[in-house]
Write a structure and sequence with these properties.
Elements lengths: L3 H14 L2 H19 L9 H4 L2 H10 L3 H12 L8 H13 L3 H14 L6 H13 L3 H5 L1 H7 L6 H14 L1 H12 L8 H13 L3 H13 L6 H13 L3 H13 L6 H14 L2 H13 L6 H13 L3 H13 L6 H13 L3 H11 L8 H13 L3 H13 L6 H13 L3 H13 L6 H13 L3 H13 L5 H14 L3 H13 L6 H13 L3 H16 L1
Amino acid sequence: MISTPSVYVLKRATVEKCTPFLTHLLAASVHCLNFSSSSLFGQNVVSSSSVGSHENVAKMILEKRNAQEALRAFRLAESQPGFVHNCLTYRILIHKLGLQRRFKTVKKILHEMQTQGNCPPDETIFCTMVHDYGRAKMANEAVHVLNVMEELGCIPTIKVYNAILNVLVKHDFFVAKHFFRNTMMNSGISPNVYTFGILIKALCLLDRIWEAFRLLESMRHQGCEPSVVIYNTLIHAFCKKGKWDAGKGVMMKMMRSGCEPNEVTYHTLISGYCRLGELTEALELLENGVARGYFPDVITITKLIDALCEEGRADEAAQLMQQMEAKGCVTDVIAHNTLIKGLCKANKTESAHKILKGMANKGTTPNVASYNALIGGLCKDGKIDRAAAMVGEMEKNGCKPDAVTYNTLIHAFCIQDKVEEAFKLFDMMKERECTPELVTYYMLIYGLYRQSRVQEAFKFINEMKCKGSFPDTVTYSLQIHELCKQNKVAAAEDLLGEMSIRGHIPDVVTYSILIDGLCKRGHLVKAFDLLNRILIHMIF
């Protein structure tokens, strides 16, 4: 074997004296020597010192594409002078083999670990094996890990039993229950809090909540105190079934036992009461929690704000946000948008605007939904010019208006018969490369129709069609509308049929126009028949 100094001398002599051909040949030889000593584990060159790190070897094994390559890298690593595998590298290899169901090879590796003596398999190795059996849907084989441990002279631990139990409950609860009673309990190992947690969670998922509750009582009698996770599992299960009071009862029980509720506990119950509209209970729970040092997360705060706004209590929602922020709770753009919508719904657009402007001071940047909520509220309040001015404010703050922004304003201007302003926004929309939607065209044409500017409406249609940007569905809908206005309902029905034949799917606006025309003409049977056709189309 050529030593490192010899390689250096050889390379230098080659560069200075050899012919180009020999230079190429010797450089290739040197590359091979370097590769054989340091590039055995992948495409990247790895120094011999880095190979000596168990973490590096474990990483290389894990990154291999398949089990065969992983095993090869494992063997190459152990061939390096002074390198000896430890439990980490063995565990990673076993996991890699298990992922590809190479369980026979796994057993051979386990025997190898046991016979070599320097790194006998521990509980972590066997738990990894159990998890891989579970992932492979091989629950029965997971139980047989106990036999493998016996063969190797290893004593099963509570962690291994819990790992097996966790696999079994996902496969068949009856089998899991049998394993718990007849195998685990007879092994001389006492179940711990994780054991009961696995069983209680499984019972809750099976909607056997009261059975899970009885098991909670049973574990306490066995001297095993339930954890906050177990209590939360039960609370969540009760709340999911709509039994909020039972969930709150579990919370009271946990507090009496000295187990303090955490964020999950409060969030589960507060969210549930908000869904029920029981805001008094939700706010009382929040107040009690804050007094005990609980700080709600942004999701819980948003739920409460939304529930308050839905009940028309937007001012209280604003106060709640202010109080929670004063206590150090974090709020985000979604929480603020929820509050802005609620305030606008309550016709409190001034307050909503203050919230929006104050967001930046808190480090929360308003997004397009923030501005759209306020613009919608201002339009609803009849403050259209001010709403339109918000577009400039948006752009100034680096927020690009979207189709919702423009459509909201276009609709508001059309309703107030300010069609010219609506068309200015339409032009701006296209200039800003914001694609108009079907509803955009409908609103503009509706605005023209409101002012009896029918010829201008058709001129607009023709202009858009020439540019290739006008949907055919709108054209048909307008023609149907015009025929219905002229009491030519039969012709309108024929046109609807032609529309479908030509592959243009009528939308809700098209159907609404024709149904309205039929009703005005007294053709109620035909109108109901058309409505039934729409419903059938929606279902199937």
